[in-house]
Design goal:
- The chain is mostly helical and 47 residues long.
- It has one domain.
- The chain contains two helices and no strands.
- The protein is flat and about 35 Å long.
- It starts with 7 loop residues before the first helix and ends with a helix.
Length: 47
C-alpha cells in the first residue's frame, strides 16, 4: 500500500478549492443528513 502524506497547508488549499462544490451539493440534502455525513467523516478520519 502506498500512502501519500499531504502537508496541512496543501490540504487546506485542496479543501478551499472543493468548498463551492461541497456547498452546492450539501444544499440539496436534508441538513440532518449533511450533519451525519460530516460527523462520520470526522470519525473515520481519526484513524
Amino acid at each position: 500500500m502506498l500512502y501519500n502524506d499531504v502537508p496541512p497547508a496543501e490540504l487546506a488549499k485542496m479543501r478551499a478549492e472543493v468548498r463551492p462544490v461541497y456547498d452546492k451539493f450539501s444544499a440539496a440534502y436534508d441538513p440532518a443528513i449533511v450533519t451525519l455525513f460530516k460527523s462520520e467523516l470526522e470519525r473515520v478520519s481519526k484513524f
